[in-house]
From TrEMBL:
It catalyses: adenosine(1779)/adenosine(1780) in 18S rRNA + 4 S-adenosyl-L-methionine = N(6)-dimethyladenosine(1779)/N(6)-dimethyladenosine(1780) in 18S rRNA + 4 S-adenosyl-L-homocysteine + 4 H(+). Keywords: Methyltransferase, RNA-binding, rRNA processing, S-adenosyl-L-methionine, Transferase. This is rRNA adenine N(6)-methyltransferase. The keyword S-adenosyl-L-methionine applies. Its EC number is 2.1.1.-. InterPro entries: KsgA/Erm, rRNA_Ade_Mease_Trfase_CS, rRNA_Ade_methylase_Trfase_N, rRNA_adenine_dimethylase, SAM-dependent_MTases_sf. SMART domains: rADc. S-adenosyl-L-methionine binds at residues 37, 39, 64, 85, 113, 128. It comes from Cyberlindnera jadinii (strain ATCC 18201 / CBS 1600 / BCRC 20928 / JCM 3617 / NBRC 0987 / NRRL Y-1542) (Torula yeast). Belongs to the class I-like SAM-binding methyltransferase superfamily. rRNA adenine N(6)-methyltransferase family. GO terms for molecular function: 18S rRNA (adenine(1779)-N(6)/adenine(1780)-N(6))-dimethyltransferase activity; RNA binding. Specifically dimethylates two adjacent adenosines in the loop of a conserved hairpin near the 3'-end of 18S rRNA in the 40S particle.
């Protein structure tokens, strides 16, 4: 008995995908400055969607849908897809692709810069991320008033490894510490550059980000400011970081602000320091 061709089970989705890619290639050139590297491997696209664990009631945010190779698969499982696309040409092509399909009424396309777009409520984020917005995208997701239950994101391999790095690893950095304060990050799969059209210059990885629940009771801006001091230079001690002139100026300013907010008794207790030494000396003593 003859064997069925490999990939046959995806034919219903693959044929429109191939047609869409051929049409796109003939119509215009992909803008790699906008991170337009279209994921063309249907098995990887399906694997990304499956790892999201989409429920029929879920609203899914997709950043950078491109020709819709991920979008059409998400539409099969989600209640609604909100796709944020920077390039109007891509938005038009995606609209054409889903026209007349069951997913047409479930798709909302928001044209514009993701970082400047006010996002509606969503349960899950899936993105073949334009690499130039990798870090801003992660922190925008983390800082949503109601962050997504899970995010499945494609990143440049090195960026993904920094997200995953643990204390003591050579790649552990401010990004690692910052994201891991708010979320659990796991690696899903490596993706070679030949799985994209046009191929990027670097390899990629897909990661899963799940926001911690309950959320740590830490002010994001204060934590981020602390990490900027701690990671100002590689292989430098924390104490040395706090003793640099620029950091001391910030600490002195913050100390003055704190003194202005405490009660009168605390202000009186600190009056001696104000008379016999400046604020900076007090700050140095407290480090």
């Amino acid at each position: 008995m003859a064997k069925a061709p490999r990939g046959k089970k995806y034919s219903s989705t693959n044929e429109p995908q191939v047609a869409a890619e051929k049409h796109m290639k003939s119509v215009f050139k992909f803008n790699t400055d906008l991170g337009q590297h279209i994921l063309k491997n249907p098995l990887i696209a399906q694997g990304i969607v499956d790892k999201a664990g989409i429920k029929p009631s879920d609203i899914v945010l997709e950043v950078g849908p491109g020709t819709g190779n991920l979008t059409v698969r998400i539409l099969e499982q989600a209640r609604k897809v909100v796709a944020v696309e920077m390039d109007p040409r891509m938005g038009a092509e995606l609209t054409k692709r889903v026209h007349g399909t069951p997913g047409e009424k479930k798709l909302e396309i928001l044209l514009g810069d993701f970082m400047k777009t006010e996002l509606p409520y969503f349960d899950i984020c899936i993105s073949n991320t334009p690499y130039q917005i990798s870090s801003p995208l992660v922190f925008k997701l983390i800082n949503q008033p109601r962050p997504p239950r899970v995010s499945i994101l494609m990143f440049q391999r090195e960026f993904a490894l920094r997200l995953l790095a643990r204390p003591g690893d050579s790649l552990y950095c401010r990004l690692s510490a910052n994201v891991q304060m708010w979320a659990n990050v796991t690696h899903i799969m490596k993706v070679g550059k030949n799985n994209f059209r046009p191929p990027p210059q670097v390899e990629s990885s897909v990661v899963r980000i799940e926001i911690k629940n309950p959320r740590p009771q830490v002010d994001f801006n204060e934590w981020d400011g602390l990490l900027r001091i701690v990671f100002v230079r590689k292989n430098r001690t924390i104490a040395a970081g706090f003793k640099s002139s620029s950091v001391l100026e910030i600490l002195e300013k913050n100390y003055k602000t704190w003194l202005a907010t405490v009660d009168d008794g605390a202000m009186m207790d600190d009056s001696t320091s104000k008379k016999h030494g400046d604020y900076l000396d007090v700050v140095k003593q407290k480090i």
